[in-house]
Amino acid sequence: MPDAPQVPLAPRPQSKFITSLAWTGLIGGVFCLVSGLFQWTMTEPFAEQGFIDIVAQLKKYAMLSIVGSIPMIWVSWGLLIRKEWGRKGMIALIVFAVIAHFAMIPMLQASFALAGDLPADSIPGMIIGMLKWMTYGGLALATLVMIWLGRKLTTQEIKNEFS
Question: How many domains in the chain?
Answer without folding.
Answer: 1
